[in-house]
Amino acid sequence: MVFPSRGIAPLRFPDGRLVGDTILRATSRELNRGDSVVYGDNAGNMWYSGDEYHSYQWSSIITQYDPATDTYMRNQPPKQVVDLAEAAGIIMNWAWTTFLPAPVDNDAAQAKIIPTTNTGEFCCIAGRTNDENRDYVLVTGDGTRYLHDMPVYGVTTFGGVTRLVGVEESSTVLYLPGVSAVHSELATILDDRGEPHWMYQLPWVAWRNLTLRNEEASHRLRAVQPADVAPLLAALEPDSSKRGTTGNQGRATSGKRVYSALSPNCQPGSAAMQAAADLLGTDDRELCVSVVQLALSVQASVDKLTSACNHARVQHKREAIAARNSAATQEAPAPNAGDADRPARPAYAVCGESATAREVIDGKRDASHIGKSYPWGWLSFAGQEKALVSWAMGPLTPPAARMEAATLLRKACRCQDRQPHVAAGAYRLASHVREAR
Q1: How far apart are CA 123 and CA 393, in angstroms?
Q2: How many CB atoms lie within 10 A of CB 328?
Q3: Is 46 within 8 Å of 65 (Cβ atoms)?
Q4: Distance (Å, rounded) from C-alpha 180 to C-alpha 167?
C-alpha cells in the first residue's frame, strides 16, 4: 500500500497501520490523509513527521509511536538518521528523507538497487549543505554523499549505473550524478503511444520492490555500437501519430482520457520491433518498445538539427552577399556629401561577429527567446555544446547528423573565438565520424 501523491509508505503492525500521523485499523471508518511522512527500522520502531510553528517559523517535529503500548514520544527522531546527517554536515529535509525497513530477503536491497544502512534499512537523507552555497545534497545509508543543482531525494543503481532520483511536474526524473541537471537528465522511457511509461508514476518509496528486468538486455544496450543499431534505424517507418505538448496532454476538455495514436513502429510484428528484439536479445514487448521509441526520438532530433543547419547555410550565404555588398559600397564614391559623412555599417553586423551571437554563446542571452526569423535563431543550442557533442556521438545518431553537429559547432567557433571547448567539440565530432568510416 503506497500513496503515489507524496510517495509515502505506511508501516504495518499486528492490528493496523501507521499512515502518516494516523493509526488505521480494521475497524476504522475513515482516513484523514495528511502530509506526515512515516519512518521505520528493521527492529519494528516507527516514527512520523509533523510541523510546528514556533518563533515565527515552521520546524519539523518527529514523533515515535509504539504500537505495543499505543504511546507517543515527541522529539524522538531515529538516531541512525540524525547521526548520518550530522556526520555529513547537512541540513535535513525530513519531508524528502526516506528511512524504511528493508527485509534481508528484499531483492532490491540485495541487488544494491536501493541504498541501505549497515543494519539493512532503506535510507536516503535529503537536504542542503550547511554552508554559504546551500547546495542540494543527498546522503545514503552507507554515508555516500551526492551534490546536485536540483532537488533529489533518492539514488538507485541498475546494471552497475547509478542515477539520482528527483521529481518534476509530479513525475519521476532521473539524473546522472556529478553532472549539472541541464546535461544529466536522462531520456524518459516511452510506451507504445509515445507517453511516459507508467513506472514514472511510481513513488520513490515503492522502488524497494523493484528488480532488474533483464540483465542481459541491459548489458547489450549499454555496449551497443552504431553498427548494431543500423538495422533498427533502417526499419523505422514515418510516424505521423499526433502527440500533444500542452498542460492538458492526454485529456480532453470533457475530462475523459484521450490516448495518443499507437505508433506503427511499435505494432507487434513491425520491422522496428523485430530489429529491437534482435538488438536486445529478447522479445519482451515493453523493452523493445522503449528502444524503438528512443530511436524515434533521436530521429526527431536529427530532423531538428538538419533544419538548424539548413538555416545556418542560408544565413551564411546572406552574410557573404551582405559582406560583398558592404565592401563594394565602401569602395564606391559617395554620391553626395551627406552620404559621405554617414558611417558604413560595420562588417560584424552582417558577418559572424554579431554582438547578439556573442551574448548567446557567452550565456548572457537566452537563445530560446530569439524569434525564428532572427538571423541567429539557429544558435538555440548555444550553451549546450557538451550536451550536443554527447548526443551526436551516441550510437543511435547517424554519422551524417554528427557532421551536421560539427558544422554548427564550427560556426559557433567562428562567432566566438574565446570558447575553446566549442572548437574541441567540433574536432571530436569530426574525428569520430572519420573513425566510424
Answers
A1: 36
A2: 9
A3: yes
A4: 15
Cell for 331?
A: 569602395
The string of pLDDT tens digits covering residues 84-98 is: 999 999 999 998 999
Alpha helix (H) residue ranges in 266-415? 271-280, 285-331, 337-341, 355-361, 385-392, 399-415
Cβ-proximal residues to 99 (8 Å cutoff; 6+ apart), any chain: 39, 40, 41, 78, 80, 81, 121, 122, 123, 125
Q: Could you give the C-alpha distances from 343 to 134, 164, 320, 330, in angstroms and in order?
A: 52, 57, 20, 10
As a whole number of angstroms, the distance between CA 67 and CA 48 comes to 13
Alpha helix (H) ranges present in 204-284?
215-222, 226-235, 271-280
3-state secondary structure of 415: helix
Cα–Cα dist 359/103, whole Å: 55
pTM, two decimal places: 0.69
Neighbours of 11 (CB within 10 A): 20
The amino acid present at 189, given as its one-letter code, is: I
Measured CA to CA, the distance from residue 142 to residue 124 in angstroms comes to 9
353 confidence band (pLDDT: 50, 70, 90): very low
Model confidence at 351: pLDDT above 60 = no
